[in-house]
Amino acid sequence: MKYIQLGCLLFLAISLLSACQKVIHLDLKPSDQPYVIEGIVTDQPGTCRVLISRTKQFADDNSFQGVSGAEVTLADDAGDTVRLVERGAGVYTDSMFIGATGHRYALQVTVGGKRFTASSTMPSKVTLDSAYIAEEDFFGDATKQLNVMYQDPAGQPDYYKFVEFVNGVQVQQLFVGDDQLTDGKEVTSTLRYFDDKDNKNDVPKIKTGDTIKVNMECIDAAVYKYWSSLESSATGSSQSASPANPVTNIAGGALGYFSAYTLQQKVIIAP
Fold first, then answer.
1. Coil, strand, or helix at residue 93?
2. Quick check: do 2-8+125-240+263-269 and 35-121 share a fold?
3. What is the CATH code of the structural domain delimited by 35-121?
4. DSSP-derived pairing of the beta strands 35-42 and 85-88
């Protein structure tokens, strides 16, 4: 399972900048602000949503500023189409739309005179058998880490994404993987992360009594490529000399992704 702690990258960047003694004034020109689309369809009720925003300028904060007035539709491979309703600025939902494994879903967004399209096929659900907390020693520091167990199906490519929450706060780290080395095997994967006390946005270490929630997403190949390329860009492990945008499955010039995935959840109390 691949994982990356995004907060460490920000800390490294700040450290490098603070090491420079000479003040450099940059004449930053406003850049184009392409649309960002984040769409999901799952096999659970009340989860279908599409978020639409625009990229920020360098000096802007990271708060979500939704784009209103878009026309957002979803269609399945049977030809049925629904129009999503804007519930808040840039947030488009349909509480009755539920996906099913093996079906292909098409997204279309029309906004600002532009049209964007994407499609995603919901893969078969792989059962999340169990989740548990285990303590491990990392260079003399004992930490509690979440472990997940599942049986990977044999003879087919499978792609996974896990999202961890500690006391309701999401761990800001990517947990994505495939079955290239685990096809048909019983898999135990540690969703390992380490808190950074200098970064207030990071989740503290897991302690006894904490409530831990994990979401397991079975995603398709294109969405896996999106998350993997995001990981590679963030760590600098890609072939590019500079960070690049992740590989989107959205056509028309927008950033982001559209994912149809199965969703499972387990909640445990840390011993």
1. strand
2. yes
3. 2.60.40
4. unpaired
| CATH number of the structural domain 2-8+125-240+263-269 | 2.60.40
Query: Per-residue confidence of the chain (271 residues) as pLDDT tens digits?
Result: 765 544 443 333 334 333 444 444 444 445 578 999 999 999 999 999 999 999 875 556 667 789 999 999 999 999 899 999 999 999 999 999 999 999 999 999 999 999 999 999 999 999 999 999 999 887 778 899 999 999 999 999 999 999 999 999 999 889 999 999 999 999 999 999 876 654 444 678 899 999 999 999 999 999 999 999 987 765 444 444 445 789 999 999 999 999 999 999 999 999 9
Structure tokens at 94: 């349909």
Measure the CA–CA gap between 146 and 150, rounded to whole angstroms: 14
Query: Cα(182)–Cα(2) distance, rounded to whole angstroms?
Result: 13
Sequence ranges of the domains in the chain: 2-8+125-240+263-269, 35-121
pTM of the shown model: 0.84
